[in-house]
Amino acid sequence: MEWPTPRYSRNSVNRAGRLLAFGPRGDASAISEALDALANWRACHGYPINTFQATLRSKLTRLSCDYLVVQRLKRTPSILEKLRRYPSMKLARMQDIGGLRAVVETVDHAERLRADYRESRFAHELVADTDYIAEPKASGYRGFHLVYKYCGRKTAAYDGLQVELQIRTRIQHAWATAVEVAGTFLNQSLKSSEGPGEWLDFFELASAGLASLEGSPLPRRFLKYSVPQLKSMIRTEEERLSISEKLGAFRIAFNAISEDPHRGSYFLIVLDPELKEVSVTTYAKSRLEEASRDYAYTEREISEGTASQAVLVAATSIEQLRRAYPNYFLDTRDFLDLLSRFSLGRGIAI
């Protein structure tokens, strides 16, 4: 198959990012060209991501545990939001436009996978390695993030593109999913610590409880509390905010699936939380360029200010897609089950 290649210089990509993030927005043709540049730059990350996922699967096989691997191209609204949060950032140097995620069973598996990357010979340059398990984010987010700069001998067109690898346990993944689902319905970026304080506080508290299940460090604000105190606090806040009822009511099912005659490899997910509808279009691996064009077109069609979302991801099957991205199906069952088991003192295998 032919992979998308860069059609714009890095300077042009950076100018496009500045225009789209900060304006002025009066010139429709300039905006259209900037959107094309961003879409092409994003699509070009498909090749290095595909290269990295083969290595990732090989390393995970050696761990002998249940795992999920998925890959995604960052959503345009998320790209622009990040540029606005960090005004000095250049689009051509954004490190997580192309992302891989590995979800494993336990913290031990996550640590072993991270160590495998750090200790093995790898053709690509490690530019960042952040441990959000030993030191959770203030929001409560936990996981490992490794960022690599692609170095290709035969594919110089992609040299310098960066790929972010996220490594999470299934418990950490369930928490992160619930944060995204709640953020979708509140139309707030909770994962960026934006939104109602009571919801942000609850998820940080929930992270502390789930961290204790894994025997991992808690967010700093909760280090002084005992496990019984955490359980009591979670029960109180869960009841006060009606967390189970609200998150449980969000879940929806497929309303439309466009089947590809070949085995699906790429999936374009479009979520309308107001209508509680999600549609999924599948694309064979050879149709990445078409999928990327449809992704860009769909994003342009979504009205600004709405909670609707589109994302292009890769997975081996619809079922794996649902397990890896339950947030796009507004499914928080795993999180609610874990929270209940912790706060009610039930045992859980981790």
SSE arrangement:
Blueprint: H1 10-22, H2 28-43, H3 46-63, E1 68-73, H4 76-85, E2 98-104, H5 107-119, E3 125-131, E4 144-149, E5 162-169, H6 170-186, H7 197-214, H8 227-241, H9 243-250, E6 254-258, E7 266-272, E8 277-283, H10 288-301, E9 309-314, H11 318-324, H12 333-343
Parallel strand pairs: 2-5, 6-8
Antiparallel strand pairs: 1-2, 1-9, 3-4, 4-5, 7-8, 7-9
Helix pairs in contact: 1-2, 1-4, 2-10, 6-7, 6-12, 7-8, 7-12
Provide keyphrases for this structure:
350 residues; 12 helices
Describe, in plain words, how this protein is organized in 3D.
- This protein has helices at residues 10-22, 28-43, 46-63, 76-85, 107-119, 170-186, 197-214, 227-241, 243-250, 288-301, 318-324, 333-343, and strands at 68-73, 98-104, 125-131, 144-149, 162-169, 254-258, 266-272, 277-283, 309-314.
- A hairpin with a 4-residue loop joins strand 7 (266-272) and strand 8.
- The chain has a 9-stranded mixed beta sheet with strand order 3-4-5-2-1-9-7-8-6.
- With 350 residues, the chain is an alpha+beta fold.
- The protein contains 12 helices and 9 strands.
- Helix content is 46%, strand content 17%.
